[in-house]
Amino acid sequence: MASATTFTISSPWIFAGLEQLWTEIKEKNPDDFVILGFPCNQFGGQDPGTDEDIQSFCQINYGVTFPIMKKIEVNGDNADPLYKWLTTEKPGLLGLKRIKWNFEKFLVGRDGKIKGRWASTTKPESLKQPILDALAESA
């Protein structure tokens, strides 16, 4: 995720779309749905702030209320174990086992299986139906 970047400043639809998904789906599925944002400074140094700075920036500038986690690495030897697992279990295009850019998205079902992976350019609203399908199948 990138908070204070050219990508997000020119594309506020990312945070707005994620926030809309969060509020719409969480309202009907309060115990079964969460969006987690993981800041990462590996893509051109675009998240240089502290964890608190990043969270505040997202809340003030984009109205984000979903949880923003601590900054992590998503690629390389120091990649967070969650991202090592996500990219191994659900490789990207052409079997790519790394995160290509900010705002790559994963959907994990209640059963712990990865239901989908989407590129950074995928609009959040296009994830609504896959999320609802995942919630329905594991109800």
Report the span from N to C terminus. 29 Å
Q: Tell me, what's the shape? A: globular
- Give average pLDDT, whole number: 87
| CATH superfamily descriptor | Glutaredoxin
By DSSP (H or I, 4+ residues per run), the number of helices equals 5
Task: Name the strands of the widest sheet in spatial order.
Answer: 1-2
Sheet of most strands = 2 strands, antiparallel
Please provide the count of β strands.
2
What CATH architecture label applies?
A: 3-Layer(aba) Sandwich
Count of domain modules? 1
Regions with little confidence, pLDDT below 50 for 5+ residues: 1-10
- CATH topology description: Glutaredoxin
Given helix and strand content, the structural type is: mainly alpha
Helix content: 25-40%
Q: What is the name of the CATH class?
A: Alpha Beta
Key terms:
single chain, 139 residues, mainly alpha, Glutaredoxin, 2 strands, globular, GPX_CS, peroxidase, oxidoreductase, peroxidase activity, Glutathione peroxidase
Give a short summary of the structure.
It comes from Parascedosporium putredinis. The chain has 5 helices and 2 strands, in the order ααααββα.
Can you walk through the features of this model?
This protein has 139 residues and is mainly alpha-helical. Residues 1-10 have low confidence and may be disordered. The chain has helices spanning 6-10, 13-28, 51-62, 81-89, 128-137, and strands spanning 105-108, 114-118. The chain has a single domain (6-137), classed as Glutaredoxin (3-Layer(aba) Sandwich). The longest helix has 16 residues, at 13-28. The chain is globular, with a radius of gyration of 15 Å. 20% of the residues are buried. The chain has a two-stranded antiparallel sheet with strand order 1-2. The termini are far apart.
